Amino acid sequence: MLRLEPRQQASSTMRWLTPILAVAITMVMGGFLFAAMGKDPFEAIKIIFLDPFFHETFGPYSRSQLMVKAGPLILIATGLSIGFRAGVWNIGAEGQFVMGAIAGGAVGLALYPAEGIWVLPLMTIAGALGGMAWAMIPAFLKIKFNTNEILVSLMLVYVAYNFLAAMVTGPLKSPDGFGFPESRSFTSVDSTHLPMIYEPLGMHAGVMVALALVIAAYVMMERHLLGFQIRLTGESPRAAKFAGVNPAIIVAVTLGISGALAGMAGLFEVTGPAGKLTTNFPVGYGFTAIIVAFLGRLNPIGIVLAGLLMALTYIGGELAQLSLGIPAAAISVFQGMMLFFLLAVDVFVNYRLVWKKEVK
Amino acid sequence: MKFTTTLAAAAALALGLGGSAIAQTKAGFIYVGPVGDLGWSYEHDQGRQAVVEAFGDAVETTYVESVPEGADAERVMTQMALGGADIIFTTSFGYMDPTLNVAAKFPNVKFEHATGYKRADNVSTYSARFYEGRHVIGLIAGRMTESNTVGYIASFPIPEVVRGINAAYLAAKSVNPDVQFKVVWVYTWFDPGKEADAANALIEQGADVIMQHTDSPAAMTIAEEKGIFAFGQASDMMQFGPTARLSSIIDNWGPYYVERVKAVMDGTWASVDTWDGIAPGMVEIGEFSDRIPADVQAEAQAASDAIAAGTLHPFTGPINKQDGSVWLAAGETADDGTLAGMNFYVEGVEGELPN
């Protein structure tokens, strides 16, 4: 019978090749999927992966949208990866994203219509704190009662969605909105409008902050004692205990950081691309970022590339819908394949397939 | 020289063909749900197909489905406009600001936004008087409920939805003074899971007739399972509840889409605000089920005919607001402005409007 046997040592080259291999397999299998639907597979793959960069009509605009879409994914995934490396599974970044947007947005609305360049930084801090506070709930429950942070953080996403609905139909509702459930526009007031730094590449201030934090995270994880302790906790909790690492602190710190980054991403989303708080502004960045974190091998540089790749499939996927009429569901399947094949390839990097006769 | 002539002719031919390709009118459609939702987005896509049928090769249509309302919608619209669309139909309320933003960047592209209230020189708005349909199914619900409890799955507390609840309630109440409405807000247009949960919750609270203002047939499916009554919403939904379905409110966008695309072709397109109901056929009442007694069918048909003829307005006084204050005096009918901004329940509807 076929069995999986763990390899003594997984090849480190393979660990890095895995994502590339996964993308390649996705292209092939996705090609079959599109062909089965009667669409030209080569054309479809070209549209998804190349047209957003090079198409003469769409390219210039699509290029400017890549970072806008990748920015929040990268920011959230960077935070998540820190926790994941410690074995702390924050699945509720989506909720922290929403709470950050509400907290930061509320500060901006309370100050409305204040002018001054200090308004947006203040909102950003409030956004980070909002996201962090929401992540502290699963952290506290885990530390005090040893609850499962996966469940608690995930369930809190739905609480956050309903809190958002209550806020935009209540205290944060725009007085000029004819009763519709949305806040005032943040982009119509300069002091609360996330500035665009370099338009052709979609580099708004939030993207710049995200990239800066990616570097900070890299330095922390590789060069700082805290980063070492986080990695040690993930790789060998017992060794970490003997080394004097307090697991409660690691749980609080990693959940806190990932919550803060997700909250900040939420605030950047509502003061930039989304423009205001509505019940529809969260489109699942918090969940997609989990895929991005793993696709990027929980490594900051890898996450930047993975975030861009994910954004590419969204934007290219829309172009494929537009020009080839490929249904949205097929594009989602295509995106899902990427994670599926990553995990599948990972299995074979860590295990090998052996054929053994059953001994009776 | 002969070769050059041939070449020139070929070039002219190529140019000519190119010319006709440019003359082809491009229409883009953006849907909030999948075209397979068999409700709201499905009916808009039926409208798109009507355009294809009407103009054949003279028109090229494209669509993008399941586009979230917000930043993503703006990107998709921009890509459509860049792709050469002459007219873009944005078919959900939440596309309002993105439509306005993109329209400002592409002054030569015409935009048609469904159910919104903001217009511009190149942005029209259109909607249907769904409340006329709500009146008719409200009458049927009032007659058919045995527990005197009608469950209502509401999406967002915006005027369009509130208007539907009020219209259905007033109609039901007019034929059944004991009727009660229970409303659940799900804050989504399309989420079959949530819609089904809401339907189950309403049934547990005693509802034996369900109405919904969401896009999927989930509520109909649950009604069929639990052996209660429901109505098709946006689409007929007969196949999801062959026994549960009493009737339906069907959105028929085809004629409007054909007319607007034609206007672009003729160069006569202008920004307008369209709000059509049963009379022009934008709102259709689906066939009545045999389970509705003949006299009730006749009553509902008469109401539908009277609305179409303009002799009956679903909001005719005396009507009080929920807080007991007078809204419409006896015989007075609601004006479109008040209806468009309706943000209050009428007297008798229970619960608080999320506000």
Question: Which geometry of chain A do the CA atoms define?
Answer: globular
* Average pLDDT rating of chain A: 92
Q: Give the second-level CATH assignment, the architecture of the largest domain in chain B.
A: 3-Layer(aba) Sandwich
Strands across the major sheet of chain B, in which order? 2-1-3-4-5-11
Q: Secondary-structure element order of chain B, as H and E?
A: HEHEHEHEEHEHEHEHEEHEEHEEH
Q: How would you portray this structure in words?
A:
The complex is a heterodimer of chains A (360) and B (355). Chain A is mainly alpha-helical and 360 residues long. Chain A has a domain at 72-306. Chain A is 70% helix and 4% strand. Chain A contains 14 helices and four strands. In chain A, the strands form two sheets. A two-stranded antiparallel ribbon of chain A has the order 1-4. A two-stranded antiparallel ribbon of chain A has the order 2-3. In chain A, helix 5 packs across helix 12 (285-295), helix 6 (119-145) packs antiparallel against helix 7 and helix 6 runs antiparallel to helix 11 (247-271). The model of chain A has no long low-confidence stretch (mean pLDDT 92). With 355 residues, chain B is of the alpha/beta class. Chain B folds into two domains: 17-128 and 253-276, Response regulator (Rossmann fold, 3-Layer(aba) Sandwich), CATH 3.40.50; 131-243 and 284-340, Response regulator (Rossmann fold). Chain B is built from eleven helices and 14 strands. Chain B has a six-stranded parallel beta sheet with strand order 2-1-3-4-5-11, sandwiched between helices. In chain B, helix 2 (40-55) links the parallel strand 1 (25-30) and strand 2. In chain B, helix 3 (71-82) packs parallel to helix 4 (96-105), helix 5 packs parallel to helix 6 and helix 5 (130-144) packs antiparallel against helix 10 (294-309). Chain B starts with a helix and ends in a 15-residue tail after the last helix.
